[in-house]
Amino acid sequence: xxxxxxxxxxxxxxxxxxxxxxxxxxxxxxxxxxxxxxxxxxxxxxxxxxxxxxxxxxxxxxxxxxxxxxxxxxxxxxxxxxxxxxxxxxxxxxxxxxxxxxxxxxxxxxxxxxxxxxxxxxxxxxxxxxxxxxxxxxxxxxxxxxxxxxxxxxxxxxxxxxxxxxxxxxxxxxxxxxxxxxxxxxxxxxxxxxxxxxxxxxxxxxxxxxxxxxxxxxxxxxxxxxxxxxxxxxxxxxxxxxxxxxxxxxxxxxxxxxxxxxxxxxxxxxxxxxxxxxxxxxxxxxxxxxxxxxxxxxxxxxxx
Length: 304
Prior knowledge:
The protein has helices at about 5-10, 80-85, 125, 140-155, 160-180, 185-190, 190-200, 200-210, 220-225, 230-240, 245-265, 270-275, 280-290, 295-304, and strands at about 15-25, 30, 35-45, 45-50, 55-60, 65, 75, 90, 105-115, 130-135. Strands 1-9-3-6-10 form a 5-stranded antiparallel β-sheet, with helices on one face. A 5-stranded mixed β-sheet has the order 5-4-7-2-8, with no helix packed on it. It has 14 helices and 10 strands.
């Protein structure tokens, strides 16, 4: 696995959901804050996204926007004044309360959510801004454009296998949106993780730790595999990731253990082996230090 894939897998729960919004005329819809990440893809027409906190944003045909922290926002036909926004129709009340889509001003959006467990979010995802806007005319991300095109065609004319294709395309859309942010110098600001993923030494060390977290890693062994001295790796890794390599490894092992406890019924001995601990006792000691509860209690609470 790689860092982005692992970061998503560690917090994903269930399958993504999506609804098509077709509307015309004057309209204003509110989406309340929620646990998870939201997204919108403008299929046809243009509209405005008005975050609860932040400047208005125009969405044009082909644009995608990710709201990775579930921030509340409004979708509208124009940058409506505060009084109009306050009267916005809740998204859950659709579609009967909105004017029917017709004419040249009709707008069609694909709106959806990814369900996330934020109890131990990877810092790469934590660094994402409240709104990630990916315009259609940005030629640097052709794979994102292709995914949006496939998704648009699939939801417009569902064919055999559509129930499998749409969730898979939504998963692909999330990966491509996060990837686009990590590789866009203008959009990522002063975030650490895009810089970490652009550093060949740090990227190689992260790849090794995520590919085989159960391995008996030492700082010297990891540095040798990354092709640098221990001091160099420690300096570059700590500066970009925010913690030394071995500290990050311990944190990732615990995060991986939490995911296994939450999503699988493997015995504790198996979970311990998969994340690099010789016994359930050793895992329990480290896990309780990180989460404040034993692995068994964590599993019970997750299933409650």
